[in-house]
Amino acid sequence: MRCDQLKATTRSRRFMGAALVLSVAAMTIGAPGPLAPAAPAFAQARPTNLADLVDSVAEAVVNISATQTVEEKGAEATPDLPKGTPFDDMFEQFFKNHGFNNGAPHPRKTSSLGSGFVIDPSGVVITNNHVIGDANDIVVIFTDGRKLKATIVGKDPKVDVAVLKVESDKPLKTVKFGDSDKMRVGDGVMAVGNPFGLGETVTAGIVSARNRNIDSGPYDDFLQTDASINKGNSGGPLFNMQGEVIGINTAILSPSGGSIGIGFATPAASVIPVIDQLEKYGETRRGWLGVRIQPVDEAIAEGLGLGSARGALIAGVDEHGPGKPAGLMAGDVIVKFDGKEVKESRDLPRMVAAMPVGKEVEVVVVRKGQELTKTVTLGRLEDGEKAMAQAADEANGAADSRASASALGMELTAIDDEARKTFKIKEGVKGVVVSAVEPNSPAAEKGLRAGDVIEEVNQQAVEKPADVSKSIDALKKAGKKSALLLVSNGAGDVRFVALALN
């Protein structure tokens, strides 16, 4: 989408039936409420007088104007008219004024407005990546009216942060980051930004929720606030009551594009490591584990003997990744990473990405009911590996929609040359092929289809249909509710499917 098709550097997407708008954010602050002696501690109350706080931080909050010049091909060509008439000049001017230019490209400028803040007196400015986009002309506008051209130090679309640099003839007023991990639901916050291009605007509210996942990227972990955040506020700071930046206002949930009291800020804890890397290298250098993961639901947890759904299930290990030599295997469930509990699969990518490349970390996995500790030297998630990881995530998403299939309703045959040719199963893929699936059967409802290959049943390899039948019968006799299958497609991409035995 061209920049001129966006309003005030906003992006929108559908989320929970409403439009999710990436906005140039406004911020909210809260003041601590009075506590009675010997009473339990409560979250900070909504602030009522923020004048002193605003005065202490306002000069460091800036407006961002980003302009992109694009070559746009003319939509229509000049009609083929007779030449050499007295009306040649008149026709040429008429068609030129009405947009006819023989299809020749012509430059077109698109612009957007956002917010940002200064973190270093030498001129380091932080904003959202989506505020500047692919702009080739960025101007930072200060509260005293000064306009300084900015260069891009680095930007990261995954966390949606950008680092800019301006040259000033005097030190700039700055703000500093605070500890977003200490923020509690109910704590007061303040947002300062440039909503709808109006200029410096202050709004206040509280932290409404933590750890929000709005599906905007692989590392979602947003703070939610009821402070008014609107279009044009993206990239602005969200302050705590001490005047520290605890988040960058990034998105809103709204059916109209305006604030309805549901705004999202990227926590300082998420952006600080990224900013440090962008300042140092001009790019991100994230840790890489080299595994594909999928969520663990109750059926898979029961099949693996986990007791409860937790951790991240390894669906595949990259042959050239750091996880392979460390001994990580498909079927392992990662429950701890570098000493921190992995409560659900989406926690793991953030943990790994935050680690420095080359660091040795301990990874605790559950394998066949036993906890094992593996030491992995993290690699770097480089460009090619990022593309691979993204493709794997998309494949995992498709696999997740088919997870926990039923064993009933399937016809199973051995893999032979004819089966490989019919279902395009590559050499090296071993197991039992699903030759047909009965319509409306549990297997069909769960996404199993002809051409899928069952490689394992409850982590035991199978080579012929009888092996699958015997394994399922044994599980039923043992009182199990489901069988965990390792299923591969013809290309060798694997996934786990929990099949109900009822």
Compile the SSE list and pairings.
Elements: E1 11-15, E2 18-22, E3 28-29, H1 51-57, E4 61-73, H2 88-97, E5 105-120, E6 124-127, H3 129-132, E7 137-141, E8 147-156, E9 161-166, E10 188-193, E11 201-212, E12 222-225, E13 237-239, E14 245-254, E15 263-267, H4 268-281, E16 287-288, E17 291-294, H5 298-304, E18 312-317, H6 323-326, E19 333-337, E20 340-341, H7 347-353, E21 360-367, E22 370-377, E23 379-380, H8 383-400, E24 410-414, H9 417-423, E25 432-437, H10 442-445, E26 453-457, E27 460-461, H11 465-477, E28 482-488, E29 494-500
Antiparallel strand pairs: 1-2, 2-14, 3-10, 4-5, 4-7, 5-6, 6-9, 7-8, 8-9, 10-11, 10-13, 11-12, 12-15, 13-14, 14-15, 16-23, 17-18, 18-19, 19-20, 19-21, 21-22, 24-25, 25-26, 26-27, 26-28, 28-29
Please characterize this protein's 3D structure.
It is a single chain. The chain has helices at 51-57, 88-97, 129-132, 268-281, 298-304, 323-326, 347-353, 383-400, 417-423, 442-445, 465-477, and strands spanning 11-15, 18-22, 28-29, 61-73, 105-120, 124-127, 137-141, 147-156, 161-166, 188-193, 201-212, 222-225, 237-239, 245-254, 263-267, 287-288, 291-294, 312-317, 333-337, 340-341, 360-367, 370-377, 379-380, 410-414, 432-437, 453-457, 460-461, 482-488, 494-500. With 502 residues, it is of the alpha+beta class. The longest helix has 18 residues, at 383-400. The protein starts with 10 loop residues before the first strand and ends with a strand.
In the CATH scheme, the class of the largest domain would be Mainly Beta
Largest pleated sheet: 6 strands, antiparallel, barrel
Provide the residue-averaged pLDDT: 79
CATH architecture identity of the largest domain: Beta Barrel
Instruction: Give the strand order of the largest sheet, numbering strands 1, 2, ... along the chain.
Output: 10-11-12-15-14-13
